[in-house]
Fold these 4 entries.
Entry 1:
Amino acid sequence: MLDQPAGTRPSTKKHGRGLESVSMREVAARAGYSRSAVSLALQGHPSIPATTRQMILDAAQKLGYRKNPLVAALMRSRRSRKSQDAPRAPLAFLTSHPPNDSWRQAATHHRFHAAAVTRASELGFQLDEFSIANPALRPDRVRALLKARGIHGLLIAPLPGGNTQLDFDLTDFAAVGLGLSVRVPEIDRIADDHFFSTQLAFERGLALGYRRIGLALAAGVSRRLEDRWWSGYLLAQQQVAPRARIPALMPETREEIPAKLTDWITRHRVDAVIFSLRAPELMKRASPSVGLISLSVLDASGKIAGIRQDTYRIGAGGIDLLVGKLQHWSTEANQPPRLLLVRGAWCDGASAPGPGKNRRTLV
């Protein structure tokens, strides 16, 4: 089936978040014509007589058949792949940052987007950016614009700041969120496995010889990530004796961490600190003898030890999830949301050379 999602009669079954679509085969059976004739009639092809076309259209309407415009556009693209100007099925990258493109300043968000664009192109789609923060294009106008352009799939960028609610009506759209930030409305999301990351960081810290490993993390960031970093740390601590378990340094904001860091390290005799993304510059106040382990290493240069998130698999995986939903015409209504977690990998680095050795970065 090339131009509509598979399914059965909408009067008896449901699929995903809405009624299942009627197949072209069912329309052909009702109208008494071949499937190829039905396909041509639905496209308005001149080879099908007007009376026949009307009979087929009437049968399709009675059954509740509806063409998936995104899949139809994709098929047109594939049939025209020899042309550089071949049309591509449209998808939207929906951002809610101020219209100065501030989301591009966050390396992780930028990499999510780049991976999504690449994967969309590989699958025959075009990913266009739309901002609901632009004063000239409020959410209701963006929604109308998307529908006018035949865009039914939305890849939602991480929300700005501490926001967890997306101010956009997702009715009749398929949506996938990048990262954990979108809590309301409930949608499918794909994100780094933060819980696994802190466990791995703690275990590798132990393997390096550190014995009193602490976590420095802003409480606001922790809540935004559903406390997954913190809970992973708490579980990882069960590997050491109770006297070696360090309470996390968790002021409300990251700006509060530097003023509290030295006292916390001294009081608990911390020999290595696991710290969150966007905070490495704040960790420079730690003594050079204290190892520093990041939960968001941006590259494998060997400077910073810690977890490198697989931003490509997250961005590309978001597109894969979204395309799968569109192929089954699954929209955002009455279906429990899914969360797909992608594990990062450990990177050795000079910021955590082992106990008794002064680190050579972040000093």
Note: The CA atoms of residues 142 and 148 lie 10 Å apart.
Entry 2:
Amino acid sequence: MLGGRESEGFEIVARDDFSDATYLLEIRHPLMARAAKPGQFVIVMLHEHGERIPLTIADYDAAKGTVTLVIQAVGKTTREMQRECKVGTRLHALVGPMGVPSHIGDAKKVVCVGGGLGVAPVFPQARAAKESGAYVIGVVGFRNKTLMFWDKKFRSVCNEFIVCTDDGSVGVKGQVTAGLQSALDKHADVDEVIAIGPAVMMKACAEVSRPRHVKTVVSLNPIMVDGTGMCGGCRVKVGEEIKFACVDGPDFDGHKVDFDDLMMRLKRFADEEKTALERWTESCRVRQEAEKVAAGTAKQ
């Protein structure tokens, strides 16, 4: 794991907004770019007094010295980052790469499934599987066509590529489980399924593959605080064992994960998160009004 922060922070060298809520940040960090592996994550702090949030590494480029994060603005910190993180600005802290890298074994045929924001972190897995010589089937899902991203990136590493949309605006109409079912029906010799996305989506994918006894790996992102296994906030039930996603994962056997327990834990701080977002939104409104008054006074 590489150091917490440089004295000047970590520069954002590129940004891409995929939708009103989803955005990409490319960050300069040469050491991390060389060390990162598929499946790992980082912990980010926007500013000195900011929240520590875990984000899965969506891509990395050792030659450019950059790591890429794809973020969905759903809470106070991710919305604040959406507003503040521009090209040329810097993150206060960026710790990682953390977690156990995904095991890229000798599987000959792999299905990589990404739903929503999970599309981004499943890309390094698909690329690594392709580089290892596997036949890669990509399955990605979005609510509609306007939310799609990285189509060309996936097609460059996938032998087959299936797009699913809830409204049928592109590809197969339905959720990613429809695409996964189609892939498994067509290929009886699939060795492994890798699924990344919301907990309910990963649970559904595990149930699709379970009757066929196909190895299924999921990437879990429960609530984390320190990222070292000390706080216990990210504990998950896997079979008869308690695991900590930050140090034992984030990859686990999808057929053994207790998803019901995971989803309950994900809601644990829902009220506090809502309150924090409301307070931040109100402070932004007050600041904007003050700026308007100040600007009006300056013109007089």
Note: The first strand starts at residue 10 and ends at 17.
Entry 3:
Amino acid sequence: MTQQRIDGQAHSTDRTFAQYIDGEFVPGAGALLTVENPYTERAIAEVACSSVADVDRAVAAARAATDEGPWPRLSKRERSRILARMADCLDKKRTELEELHVAETGMFRKMNDSFGVGLPIRWWHDYAELASRDLDHAVPPDITDTGTGLRLAGGMVYQEPVGVVSAISPFNFPFFVSTHKVAAALAAGCAVVLKLSELTPLTCFLIAEAAAEAGLPPGVFNYVIGDAEVGRRMVEHPGVDCVSFTGSTVVGKQIAATAAQTVKKVVLELGGKSAAIVLPDADLDSCVPTLLGQFSHGGQGCALSTRLVLHDDIADEVIQRLVALVPFLKAGDPADPTTTHSPQITSAARERVLGFIRSGLDAGAELVTGGGPITTQPHGHWVEPTLLDRCPTDASVAQEEIFGPVLVVHRFRTDDEAVAIANNSRYGLWGTVFTRDLPRAMALARRIRTGSVGINGMALNIHAPFGGVKESGIGREFGEYGIREFLEPKSVSWVL
């Protein structure tokens, strides 16, 4: 018997959550894990964690499915049909996905049902279509001297599945991030072992259910539960060919070092400290509400633009407008459709965020609004939406990924100064430029050292690559770019 949160309360349910290995749901052999709702601070489920031996069994199942099973050898069209059935199954589970997701993440309902669950389900259908595309291509013929005379040479470049993929996803967007790992790897013909954060392991059980219902061959998708010990085994296991990880830069570096011991491929989507440059001609009626959105999900998003780089001529007005809109961020039960602000995932996360705010004030930043815990709620790990003006660019609050609802303001006079401030970061995941002057925005976008840049907002598109430079990661996700990370090109040449 477990518990599931429904209509803002914790209720008992007969649903059993278990790891999924080689086509079967089986209890883990590890310790019992209690999953808590970050709003109610109450248990919503108890799940048996996987043991290291369970991970070994999952990798062995994925290895057998890769080396001996049909999945990598099916036609692209047949893989596409099975993935389409999985997408349909997830569509039918949408309501339960939404309930589980809001309960374990604390994401407020409007964001949860659209960005957290609805958009990823739509993208499952897109990955099913992308799986049918032929990415192989011919090598143009050429005349070559082989040492015995001139010969005609040519060949083919085949895109082959990389093999067994260990996919490790974070707590903040478990279903969204897992979609771009699991669906892309399956579309490439790989077998997958997935692990979610131990804080939010429930939603993606429904991916396993969809795999079983859609007829995905046993061993192609496996799901394990646990903490860092389980993750380490997934990375170091010699039967794994590729590790796809989303999370902190600190852990990403450890994964890269461990994977290097067996020369595994890694795809790392890591931290961010993105900058939003607001030029003096920006449409503030549109820009300021977009900047308010950087508080979304309690600031627990790697691509959020938490550094506001404002031109001196409009900085005061932008700040005044932001402060006027902050009251629209309503704390409360995330399942309530009127709630528009999320709690931090744990009490430790809340204290970490508050510590960064204190350090920013100590460094000389000016507190404009917020700055402390929200005390009007009876429970939950809340932090006020906080804005710090005239923040020193080298302060830790301006340099470190906080993962909380904290925005810092830097001011500039020239485009060169704005770019220098934006690039003054060890991260390089996202950036934004607000202006009515598109050529100027495009020129600035080319100078910002990030994997992606949005102009007048963030528009995620499955056909555009997502990922970072510098310490924000290696590789790309989304659509065909993400699928290619799970493929290895093989050249087959001939001479006549």
Note: Confidence is low (pLDDT under 50) at residues 1-13.
Entry 4:
Amino acid sequence: MKNALENRDWKGVAKHLFVNYNYVFSFALLLIVGRFASDQFLSVASISNLIRSSVFIGIIALGMTLTIISGNIDLSVGSILALAAAISVSVFNSSGSVLQALLAAAVAGAGLGLINGLFVGYARMASFIVTLATMVAYRSLTVQMGQGGPLLTDNTLYFENLRWIGYGGIGGPRGLPYLAVIFIALTLIMWFVMNKTKFGRYVYAVGSNEKAAKLTGIRVTVVKVAIFTITGLLTGIAAFLYAARFGSVDVATAGRMFELDVIAAVAIGGTMMSGGRGTIQGTFFGAIIIYSIDAILSAYQVPAFVNDFIKGVLILGAVLLQKVLDRTRDE
């Protein structure tokens, strides 16, 4: 891009920007469309609500980005969220401690992700099969834990200690939501990990060419285990925030179909589904785009029943676009 600027090759600059930052253009286009749908769509409050709505999917998607870049997939994230949230609620009710509830959710999420990673890394099983199996298994444990019914936080403890995280914000309830602050902070941390550490380079190397990564001395098995553990950890944090936001966990439905939205956010954010390429910042925008689409569909009174159909089409479109852009990069 530097050479293009020096040579005044504006066509080359435009091509570089679109190929590598197409998610920014998609987000800007959605904002314009949303502005026509509602006069308040571009207000500070509306943008804050979009970010807050995308927090649970977005935080999980940060971990899923690593998983997909490495050439794997995790279908169990919705079930991990439900189980970790159920554990978090139980710990909170027994202790009244927000910190213990957070630690319980984070440890539970990391532990469940570790199980996935051990099967994928050391047993060398396909991640699709492993996480499909654990998706069902983790959901079953969650339903058993709640005996089929919702797990509720203690009402008094919730309003005294926990609710402010889910509904509060910097500058008051109408300011920047704490949930959004946490999402942005985690995005910056994961950006640093993927761009400024050896581990981040290892993740890209494993996804680009696993055999070559092994030959260069990278411990591919350890990297895979770490990736799934980190994905579980981030899902556990999202589970705690989910409990803080809603004050309860419906064991049968909490997190169900989250994997669809998470994969959509990662794909729309520009991560190659075949592995080896992707960005954390792209996933951040991808998560917000998913909920921008929901908001726009709602504003245009599109029936909610077709939302998942539209998301499915978006995933296919995003994957197709990445293939086209990948060819463009090579030209």
Note: The first strand starts at residue 151 and ends at 152.
